[in-house]
Amino acid sequence: MNPLDQLKAVLCDPSGRCCIDGSDEDRAIIDRALKELAKPEQAKSIWILTREINQYDQDGEYFVGAWNQKPTHQMLTELGVPQKRLRKVLDGGGRVYPEEEWFYLKEQK
Fold first, then answer.
1. CB of 68 within 8 A of CB of 109?
2. Cα separations (Å) of 72 from 3, 43, 53, 78, 108?
3. 74-83 contacts, C-beta under 8 A, 24 or more apart
4. What is the arithmetic mean of pLDDT over 76-85?
5. Phi, psi values for residue 22, rounded to 5°
6. At 49, which helix (H) or strand (E)?
7. Cis ω for the linkage preceding 71 (within 30 of 0)
8. Whether 40 contacts 21, CB under 8 Å
9. If you compute the radius of gyration of the chain from its CA atoms, what whole number of angstroms results?
10. Which helix (H) or strand (E) holds 105?
11. How far apart (Å, rounded) are the C-alpha atoms in residues 109 and 39?
12. Measured between alpha carbons, how far is 7 from 51 in angstroms, rounded to an integer?
């Protein structure tokens, strides 16, 4: 039995409504929480920031940071993204010639 079904077996009547002792508010909270848990899991994405450097021994993209939501200007500048390139990075990134270092921001689902 999965965890959600186990909770329902202990907290609910056969129709799936909360039936434990407690205030009406407590039972309403439990009902809402069980409904939320029963929803299909939403697709989650992660935002990955990488950088490339134009050097002789450069090995490709280097990991810089990751977030569970699209990063803000402040989050990016804290990791070394130049102020003048924030808009480009937030749009996905890429090289702007003649830069020797550039960033990519990708959403992974």
1. no
2. 36, 21, 23, 10, 17
3. 76/49, 76/103, 76/105, 79/49, 80/51, 81/49
4. 91
5. 150, 180
6. strand 46-53
7. no
8. no
9. 24
10. strand 101-108
11. 19
12. 46
- Residue 75 corresponds to which tokens in the numbers above? 């989050």
pLDDT at position 28 = 78
With tokens 């939403």, the residue in question is: 42
Q: Using alpha carbons, select from 46, 53, 48, 55 the residue that is nearest to residue 89.
A: 48
Q: What is the pLDDT of residues 49-62, one digit of tens each?
A: 998 888 776 667 88
What is d(CA 105, CA 41) in angstroms, rounded to the nearest whole number? 25
18, 77, 89, 108 from 83: Cα distances, Å: 53, 7, 10, 24
At 22-43, the pLDDT tens digits run 778 777 777 777 777 777 766 5
